[in-house]
Amino acid sequence: MSSVAREVIIVDGGGANIASLNLALQRLGYAGRLTSDAAAIRAASHVILPGVGAARAAMERLQKAKLDTLIPALRQPVLGICLGLQLLFDSSEEDEVECLGILPGRVRRFTPAPGRPIPHMGWNQITRRRDSPLLDGIPDDSYFYFVHSYAAEVSDHTIATTDYGWAFTAVAGRDNFHAAQFHPERSGPLGARLLRNFLELC
Question: Is 166 in a helix, a strand, or coil?
Fold first, then answer.
């Protein structure tokens, strides 16, 4: 780790779990800066859009800061995590909210069933659908830690899926936008590898 940590911008969308994300970044030699400042986000080398909470509240916060128009125009690597992944899609059943529209598709709620409580919480496997630098060094069928009640449908931009009653998008990507439905910062060495892969993208 270098003596001066490199800075990563974390978009302040009102989400929780920022301390865990910052700790994971610190282990990789980076410092996370939480901000909603458009100039800082635009100038960053890498941007992370995290999220724990409700889609509408997150979108309203982004809209208030005018980040709903800024984020889709970013050209540097962007990583959406959990709700951050869902916000990249066209819309969500959660409060029937329009999202950022970077990835085509809709986010819908899981249906509870015996043995499948909502939220989907805990370790589950991902199944790779296509190659991506985000998954370099990560074996197929690896386990990651999930906590969510809504999930994005599978689309042409799905990189990996996970099954919880139906196959949903666990990892997605389009151009400079990348996303994980699970929490890499809470997923041990493989989660750290995914974060490192993202941070090494140019």
Answer: coil
Token readout for 194 is 């995914």
Tokens coding 40: 């800082």
Catalytic residues: 82, 183, 185
What pTM did the predictor assign? 0.94
Residue among 202, 136, 201 at smallest CA distance from 171: 136
Residues 194 and 180: beta-carbon distance below 8 Å: yes
- The CA distance from 195 to 8, in Å, is 11
The model's pLDDT over 109-163, given as tens digits with 9 standing for 90+, comes to 999 999 999 999 999 999 999 999 999 999 999 999 999 999 999 999 999 999 9
* Domains of the chain and any CATH numbers: 6-199 (3.40.50.880)
**Residue labelled with tokens 């990189």:** 159
Token pair of 114, please?
């015996």
Strand 89-92 and strand 103-109: the pairing is parallel
